[in-house]
Amino acid sequence: MTPTAPPEDQLETLRRMMAERGPAARVIAVTSGKGGVGKTNVAVNLAVAAAQGGRRVILVDLDLGLANADVVLGVRPTATLAHVLSGRRDVADALTPAHGIQLLAGASGLEAIANLDDEARGRLQEALERLHRRADLIVVDTGAGISRNVIEFAATADETIVVTTPEPTSLVDAYATIKLLAGRECGGPVRVLVNQAWDREEADRVSAGIVTVAQRFLGRRVDRLGYVLRDEAVGRAVRVKIPLMIGEPRSLAAGCLRNVAGRVMRIPARVPQAGGFLARLKSFLSRSA
Ligand SMILES: Nc1ncnc2c1ncn2[C@@H]1O[C@H](COP(=O)(O)OP(=O)(O)O)[C@@H](O)[C@H]1O
Ligand SMILES: [Mg+2]
Questions:
Q1: The whole model's pTM is what?
Q2: Which of 234, 252, 256 has the most ligand 1 atoms within 8 A of CB, as the residue to mutate?
Q3: 71-104: per-residue pLDDT in tens?
Q4: Beta bridge partners of 224
Q5: What are the structural domain ranges in the chain?
Q6: Which residue, judged by its Cα, is nearest atom 17 of ligand 1?
């Protein structure tokens, strides 16, 4: 039996509802223990790769200490998160288009989220709510994870990517970050990404080590998201201010990042829990008030 097509007015109502509500975006926080491991390059290039795969992507630079996603993207934003938090700009007018994605640029020297006043907090919640409705994917460059704020924010995301290099210092700090995340009951899946690996064997050894230690000592499951090889093309791309995926798409690191982006897209989004990202964000903002 063939189902009867809904009458035009029902279709129209459905379309209007979809347009009003919009599908909820998936929110991915990119963090690390140590600074300088490649978070921003990973966040920017994952975002660009996802956009190349047809997703509507917004990159939010929430590294309040060292915001520089705009530099890696090679754009000069006329508005930043600072304008949104102070109420001078509507979030929709504060986005900077860049290589197929939209950037909500950060501003260095912004107050830590914990120190924001109630008004700024409300504006942050509202801004992220509105972005949530207009994207398929929101990638958040959060800065290094040792600060309580970053961990708390990362725990509101649907999933967190912890970036580490194979160096012992970076690994120890990545583990400390995972430990802090594990203490947050609402935190979503944690995925480890090994950046600047010499080869696949090294990356596999490193990520297997983190997965085992997290399981054994924290009882926390950590997924392996893959690796990005150490590649001079990354530094070259930063110097010419053209993202790797655009300027050097055939480089080794770009190939790795494409694989990682493909994997992220293939993993089904987490089952919505406790009201989803917006509810967790609200509870985080009110807790740290
Ligand atoms: N896969 C890689 N291969 C070589 N150099 C890299 C790689 N990833 C990052 N880098 C370099 O590491 C430095 C720090 O990267 P960045 O993304 O700014 O780190 P973070 O955001 O964690 O501070 C940059 O100079 C960048 O060129
Ligand atoms: Mg950075």
A1: 0.90
A2: 234
A3: 999 999 999 999 999 999 999 999 999 999 999 9
A4: 192
A5: 23-287
A6: 38
